[in-house]
Write a structure and sequence with these properties.
The chain is of the alpha/beta class. It has 17 helices and 19 strands. The strands form five sheets. It has a seven-stranded parallel beta sheet, sandwiched between helices. α1 packs parallel to α7, α4 runs parallel beside α5 and α11 crosses α12. The chain is globular, with a radius of gyration of 30 Å. This is Acetaldehyde dehydrogenase (Acetylating).
């Protein structure tokens, strides 16, 4: 009975938040660019000031990741994001094609719903709140239950900062008692214009099944191919820096390393030198048994954990200073659990004969995280273009997956919502930005006379029309009440020409 009452309260809360959020969204829709930029700037300022405290809260509440890296994530989601979007036009006329006489005008979507994962709870909330406001939308959040306190704190800070700078109250809000019932109520509520879903496959699928527009992201399972021309020291350094960043909780982080027979030994030596521990087959089995449940579903207890925590729980001994655990694999699929996504400090390791075999293996691995990200380390641009054909929305070159995919170390726009395209069942394939949160209407001037479109177009030439007119004529036809003898060729030709002129609008 208590649970039933709690569910009813959470559903009612969701309804109230949607109602109030819709009112606020209608108000902010009339704000000017100057007003919006002022609000966004204040949100960024507050996020920057609280980056460390929010990171600390997130680690303490979830146990995932590292305080220093979550602090940087919060910085990325605010300061770095602001630098990328501050000059972005999201209000009024955003583009005008003088030659074609088409004007693009941006309009807000209304009230958005944001689903927040436990792996990046504060940075994702900050990110979605800022891009929603930049596009003049309201947003109501559904936090992950295991990261409720830190997520709600981030949302509260963003709301207060926005209101302080002139935004209407309730423009940013959150369910205080998350439940599946409340989340479903929000997703299907008539006042929600669109859902931005970041989370597990089940939640993303539910968002796309809610009967309204949604921006969802799929799982990642990024392979990292160290090609024979690569700078091995740099490649290994980037991969480990990425996989250890917040203990591997970013879905763009590397999940597998692929090397060729010709550079295997030097890569293995460099991995060991930089803190990689190659597990024995027996140790790999112990770790896999610990990491996965129900096949290849990740055990939440070991998401974002250090190698030391994982090794101790698995009952294996690892050298001091170990930064990642590595298990050699001979294939892909159910019999090879490490071939799936592992949002923690564990990597699969594969050896292939050449780039063609690396190509096939990459495609196999990507089937378990299709559309997301893959990386290649090489000095051969032709090889980059060969691998650019893989079914991944982000092909990263000579950089780490975590930092590269989110735009921290690449020219991609900073984002914590990474689309996977239709490969991964996502409606977008790029990093989500404020531009995905606006409706664009187009003002289009007439360039041609509608009455003479056919006659004035010299490429509109179909002799079949003449034949059609001839074949439809009988020996005794009439045009405008006049009898025409189709055996009279001159009259017949005159009739055909008159018909053609009539079809082209010529008097």
């Amino acid at each position: 009975m208590e649970n039933f009452d709690q569910d009813l309260r959470s559903i009612q809360e969701a309804r109230n938040l949607a109602k109030l959020g819709k009112i606020a969204a209608n108000q902010i829709a009339d704000y000017t660019e100057e007003q919006i930029n002022k609000i966004v700037y204040n949100m960024v300022r507050v996020a920057k000031e609280n980056a460390f405290s929010l990171a600390k809260m997130a680690v303490e509440e979830t146990g995932f990741g590292k305080v220093e890296d979550k602090t940087y994530k919060n910085y990325m989601a605010s300061v770095m994001l602001y630098d990328a979007i501050k000059d972005m036009k999201t209000i009024g006329v955003i583009r005008e094609d003088v030659q074609r006489q088409v004007i693009d005008i941006a309009e807000p979507m209304g009230l958005l719903m944001g689903i927040v994962p436990s792996t990046n709870p504060t940075s994702t909330a900050i990110f979605k709140a800022i891009i929603a406001i930049k596009a003049r939308n309201g947003i109501v959040f559904s936090p992950h239950p295991s990261a409720l306190k830190c997520t709600c704190k981030a949302i509260s800070l963003m709301h207060d900062a926005a209101v302080e700078a002139g935004a209407p109250k309730n423009i940013i809000s959150s369910i205080s008692t998350p439940s599946m019932q409340a989340t479903n109520e929000l997703m299907k509520h008539k006042d929600i214009a669109m859902i931005i879903a970041t989370g597990g496959p089940g939640m993303v699928k539910a968002a796309y099944s809610a009967g309204k527009p949604a921006l969802g992201v799929g799982a990642g399972n990024s392979p990292a191919y160290i090609e024979r021309t690569a700078n091995v020291q740099k490649a290994v350094s980037n991969i480990i820096a990425s996989k250890t960043f917040d203990n591997g909780t970013i879905c763009a982080s590397e999940q597998s390393i692929i090397v060729e027979e010709c550079n295997r030994e030097v890569v293995v030596a460099e991995l060991k030198k930089q803190g990689g521990y190659f597990m024995t087959d027996e140790e790999t089995k112990k770790v896999c048994k610990l990491l996965f449940k129900n096949g290849h579903t990740m055990n939440a207890k070991f998401v974002g954990r250090s190698p030391q925590v994982i090794a101790e729980a698995a009952g294996i001994s690892i050298p001091e200073g170990t930064r990642v655990l590595i298990g050699e694999q001979q294939g892909v699929g159910e019999e090879y659990p490490l071939s799936y996504e592992k949002l923690t400090t564990v990597l699969a390791f594969y050896t292939v004969k050449d780039w063609e075999e690396a190509c096939k293996l990459s495609i196999e691995l990507l089937q378990n995280g299709i559309g997301h990200t893959m990386s290649i380390h090489t000095e051969d641009r032709d090889m980059v273009m060969k691998f650019a054909k893989k079914p991944a929305a982000r092909i990263l070159v000579n950089t780490g997956g975590s930092q590269g995919g989110t735009g921290a170390s690449t020219g991609l726009i900073p984002s914590f919502t990474l689309g996977c395209g239709t490969w991964g069942g996502s409606s977008v394939s790029e990093n989500v930005t404020p531009m995905h949160l606006i409706n664009i209407k187009r003002v289009a001037y007439g360039l041609k006379d509608c009455n003479t479109l056919a006659s004035s177009d010299i490429s509109f030439n179909y002799p079949e029309l003449n034949n059609y007119a001839t074949s439809s004529c009988t020996n005794s036809s009439s045009l405008n009440g006049l009898k025409i003898d189709c055996n009279d060729h001159e009259k017949l030709l005159s009739l055909v020409n008159e018909l053609v002129r009539a079809m082209k609008g010529v008097k």
